[in-house]
Amino acid sequence: MSKQQPVLFSIGWNACINCGACVAICPQEAGFVSPFDTIAVDRPCDIACLLCESICPVDTITHVPVEQPAVSVVTVDR
Amino acid sequence: MPPTDYDLIIVGAGPAGSTTARFAASAGLRVLLIDKRQELGAPIQCSGAISGHGLAAAGIPPDPEFIHEAIYGFAIYNDRGDRTVHDYRQLKGDEYGPGPGKKPLGYVVDRRRFDRYLMTQAERAGVDVWLKTEGLGYRPRPDGSCTVSLLRYNQPIELTTRVVVGADGLQSQVGKWAGLQTHIKITELAGCLQFIVDGVETEGLLEIVTGHEWAPGGYAWVFPKGHGYAEIGLGVIATMTDKPARWHLDKFITQSFFRDRFAGSRILEVQGGGVPLAAPLRTQFADNMILVGDAARHVNPITGGGLHTAVAGGKIAADFLVGHLGDGLPLQGGALEAYQRAWLGAMGDKMWKLYGIKTGIFHNMDIGERDRQLYATMSSYFSPTSEFKKI
Ligand SMILES: Cc1cc2nc3c(=O)[nH]c(=O)nc-3n(C[C@H](O)[C@H](O)[C@H](O)COP(=O)(O)OP(=O)(O)OC[C@H]3O[C@@H](n4cnc5c(N)ncnc54)[C@H](O)[C@@H]3O)c2cc1C
Ligand code: SF4
Q1: Which residue's CA is the nearest one to ligand 1's atom 27?
Q2: pLDDT (0 to 100) of residue A72
Q3: Which ranges of B127-240 would DSSP assign to H, the alpha helix?
Q4: Residues of B in contact with A23 (CB under 8 A)
Q5: What is the pLDDT of residue B378?
C-alpha cells in the first residue's frame, strides 16, 4: 500500500454531473463508491492517488487529510 | 450441476448487457438482466454515434424511437481548421443518401431511448428484467455454479446461476469481484464533457477536431443531434493538461476557429463521462464469469467509440454462452477463456492493432508532429478505404 496519508474526499454536488469518471479511474477495491455513482465520500481512502480529482471533467472533487488509518468497511459480499 | 435459478445473470442493461440477454434468451437460455438505474441511459454519458452496419450486425433495426439524426459521413479538422471530408453522399452516392432506395451511413441515437429499446427487445425475447436492482457480488460454488448477491429496492436477494455476465460499463465492479486487473491508466482515460446546444448548424456529418491546442490527449467533436440541435464536446487526458475538461470546452467554444459558428449557441443539456483510449482487458473471464462491453474495455482506442463494440461483443458473448452451456462444458478453472479467444478472433485483435497505432502517436513528445499524426490517422481512419471500417 502507498505511504500516503489517507484522505477523505468531498464532492461539490452542485457541479457534479454524475459521469462516473472518478469511479472508472479509481484503483480501490470494488465498493469504494457513493450512492450517486461517484467515489466514496463517507470513509477515508488509504491510497490517496488523487487520480479521481484530476480526471473529473468539472473539477469538483477535493480532499482533506485524515489522521487515523482507514477503517476497513466491507460492503461487498465475496 | 444441480438446477440453478437462471442460466445467466447479466449485471448492467446497457447496450452490451441487453444485446447479450436478447440473443441468449432467443436461443432458449433462462436469463435475468438487472440494472441499478431507474431509467436506463440516464444521466446520459455518451454522444450516441453508431454506424448503420453496427446496428444491422447486431440485429437492431434503425427505429425512430431512438434515432436523433441520420449521418452521412465525417469531417476531420486539424488544429487550425483545415479539414478532410468523407461525405458518403458524394463518395458512394448510389448507396448512401436521404433519398428512396438509399441509406444513411450511421446515426446519432438518444441513449435513454436506445437503451430502453434494447432492453424491451430483450424482454420480448423472454428475458426477466429487474430495474432498481444492484449487483453486489458473486461466489463460485463447489457444484460448478455460482451465487449472485443482489439488492432490489433495498431487499437483499441471493440467486444461483451458471454464469454471471459483467456488462456494468466503465465503472465495472464485476471484474473486481473476481479479482481481475481492471485498472485503467490515467494516461488512457479521457475525461469528457459535452453540451447539447441550440443554434449551431450541422450538415449530416460527424465532425472531429484534432489538435493539442483544443483537446490535449483526445479530440473535440460536433455532432448533429436532431431537431436542429447539435452536440459539442471534447475529451482530454489529465496528464497532458492541468485544466479540467470544462475549461477546455469553454476555450474550444469561445476561442477556436469555430467561435463565430458557436457564438449564438445556447446550452440545453450538460453531459460527461470517461472514455478509455486503452487496450481491451487482458483477462476478461474468471470462474463462472465473463465481461462484455465497456466493462471489458471493448472500446475503440482511436475514436473512443464503444456502442458498436458493445452490441457486437454482446452477440459474441451470447453465441459463445449458448454453445458452451448447451454442451454442458465446465465453467470454472479457466474454462471460459474460450470466450476471450472468440472475442479476440472476431474483433479484439483489430482493437489491439488500433491501440498500437494510438500509442505510437501519443508517445511522440513533439506536439506539432503528434498533431499532424493524429490528424492524418483520423482522416484515413474514416475514409472508405480504411482497413478498420467495421470496428
Ligand atoms: C462523453 C462520451 C461520449 C461517447 N460517445 C460515444 C459515441 O458517440 N459513440 C460510441 O460508439 N460510443 C461513445 N461513447 C462510449 C459509449 O458510451 C460506451 O462505450 C457504451 O455506453 C458502453 O456500453 P455498455 O453496455 O458496455 O456499458 P454502459 O452503457 O455503461 O451500461 C452499463 C450499465 O450497467 C449498469 N450497472 C453498473 N453497475 C451495476 C451494478 N453493480 N448493478 C446493476 N447495474 C449496474 C449501469 O447502470 C448501466 O446501465 C461515449 C462515452 C462518453 C463518456
Ligand atoms: S468525475 Fe466529477 S462529475 Fe464525474 S461523477 Fe465523479 S465527481 Fe461527479
Answers
A1: B169
A2: 57
A3: 174-177
A4: 171
A5: 95
Boundaries of every domain in chain A: 1-78
Nearest to B137 among A24, A37, A76 (CB): A76
User: Per the CB < 8 Å rule, is A57 touching B270?
Assistant: no
Domains in chain B, start-ordered, CATH in brackets?
6-42+111-184+278-363 (3.50.50.60), 67-109+186-276 (3.30.9.10)
CA torsion through residues B96, B100, B101, B103, sign: positive
Pairing of strands B289-291, B285-286: antiparallel
* Number of other residues whose CB lies within 10 A of the CB of residue B179: 12
Q: Are A59 and B246 a contacting pair at CB < 8 A?
A: yes
Bin B74: left if φ > 0, else alpha if -120 < ψ < 50, else beta: beta
Contact A30 B193 (CB under 8 A): no
Instruction: For residue range B169-188, list pLDDT tens digits in order.
Output: 999 999 999 999 898 999 99
* B150 CA to centre of own chain: 25
Q: How near does any CA of chain B get to the CA of A66, in Å?
A: 24
* ipTM here: 0.90
pLDDT, position B373: 96
The single-letter code of the amino acid at B118 is L
Residue showing cell 431511448: B113
Residue range B49-66: average pLDDT? Answer: 97
Please write the tens of the pLDDT for every residue from B226-237: 999 999 999 999
| B97: closest CA of chain A, how far (Å) | 35
Interface check for B137 against chain A (CB to CB < 8 A): the answer is yes
The set of cell numbers assigned to A46 is 488509504
The CATH topology of domain A1-78 is Alpha-Beta Plaits (3.30.70)
At B229 the pLDDT is 98
Give contacts of B246 with chain A, Cβ < 8 Å: 57-59
A18 lines ligand 2 (CB under 6 A): yes
Which are the contacts of B350, defined by CB distance < 8 A and separation ≥ 6?
A: B388, B391
pLDDT in tens, B247-271: 999 999 999 999 999 999 999 999 9
Helix and strand numbers, DSSP H then E, in chain B: 11, 18
Residue A39 CA to ligand 2 center (angstroms) comes to 8
Say if strands B205-209 and B106-109 run parallel, antiparallel, or are unpaired. unpaired
Q: What pLDDT is stored for residue A78 in this prediction?
A: 43
CB contact under 8 A, A55 and B186: yes
> CA of A42 to nearest chain B CA: how many angstroms apart?
18
